[in-house]
Write a structure and sequence with these properties.
single chain, about 325 residues, mainly beta, Porin, globular
């Protein structure tokens, strides 16, 4: 049993630390738009938007060992060079804790975007986004490291490589989105982003190792309004960051249940190739959207995890502040 536990700990450590596969991901990726693509910054109607998400994964194996919270705020701040264009700005922060040693990856990022209208009717937009900030790594529970060599009282060379100091680096990312209204019933959005453009070095192993591979993301969805009450949305996500590849397909739907109060019931299913199947549920109350996702593990870890992969809760709120119109006073002259 001890060898099994030690083997899991050491394996997870090497996978996350040395292969560079420790990258943040969410099933409800649209609920963390600034990390999905910096071009999503300010992409809404309102004064500003605030949101957050929390993911807990593999708690059936090791309670609270894999958790990822994230928050963000963004706004369309000013008009662009033309009346139909606008500039968005925002910031996001996340902390990802993985494994028994508490390998922590976090970041604080600022992003900006320019939304360029295409055509006189402005039915289509091309959006450019840029993001920069600080990312870091740290082993929070270095004292929890153990191995067969430690148990036998022998020297463990791996332990001497561990460092409990925080390592940080500057991060740069860019993104592009194209979105268009094909008709009154159909809307499409596709995007591409690239993270770690500067290939920052970020390692706790020393020796100058740990240069991050660039992370490429392609994503998109199609909104089709079946009728005045129902909208269906097929979507996809593809990510490549050596040595890992992530492919996700989802089919979501939104049902209007109260038009006066703008209440929608949201739901859907999804699949992450060679990893998990997803169930998504949520609601929209006017400018407030809440959601939850449940992952069923289908990979080789399925039996060990009792087919439980992860659970997420997320919410975002769009604040709308409008100036009161300044009207000139009208003096009525009474008629006698």
């Amino acid at each position: 049993m001890i060898r099994y536990i030690v083997g899991c700990v050491v394996t997870l450590f090497f996978v996350f630390q040395f292969l560079g596969a420790q990258e943040v991901h969410w099933t409800q990726y649209e609920m963390m738009p600034l990390l999905l693509n910096p071009a999503k910054t300010g992409d809404f109607n309102g004064t500003f938007r605030v949101g957050g998400i929390y993911r807990n994964q593999y708690s059936s194996i090791t309670p609270d060992a894999f958790s990822t919270p994230g928050i963000y705020v963004d706004a369309p701040v000013i008009k662009g060079f033309r009346d139909q264009d606008w500039v968005g700005a925002g910031g996001t922060m996340f902390v990802d804790r993985a494994g028994a040693l508490g390998l922590q990856t976090g970041g604080f990022l600022l992003s900006g975007s320019y939304h360029l209208a295409l055509g006189q009717a402005a039915n289509s937009y091309l959006v450019f986004g840029f993001q920069t900030g600080a990312i870091g790594k740290r082993i929070r529970d270095i004292d929890a490291y153990n191995s067969e060599a430690n148990i036998l009282g022998e020297n463990d060379p791996i332990q001497s490589m561990l460092d409990d100091q925080t390592e940080s680096a500057q991060e740069y990312a860019g993104g592009l989105i194209f979105k268009t209204n094909f008709s009154e019933r159909t809307f499409m959005e596709v995007g591409f982003s690239a993270k770690h453009l500067n290939r920052p070095r970020l390692s706790l192993a020393g020796g100058g190792a740990g240069r991050l591979a660039m992370r490429f993301t392609a994503h998109g969805y199609l909104d089709y309004k079946v009728n005045d009450q129902l909208t269906i949305t097929p979507g996809f996500l593809y990510e490549k960051y050596d040595p890992a590849t992530l492919v996700v397909g989802q089919l979501r739907g939104s049902l209007l249940v109260n038009e006066e109060r703008e209440v929608y019931l949201n739901g859907g299913v999804g699949y992450r190739v060679d990893d998990s199947a997803h169930v998504l549920i949520g609601m929209q109350f006017g400018d407030l959207t809440v959601g939850m996702a449940y992952d069923f593990t289908v990979s080789e870890l399925a039996s060990a995890a009792n087919y439980f992969g992860g659970i997420e809760v997320a919410a975002n709120y769009i604040v709308k502040i409008y100036k009161k119109p300044e009207a000139d006073p009208v003096i009525f002259c009474p008629r006698f």
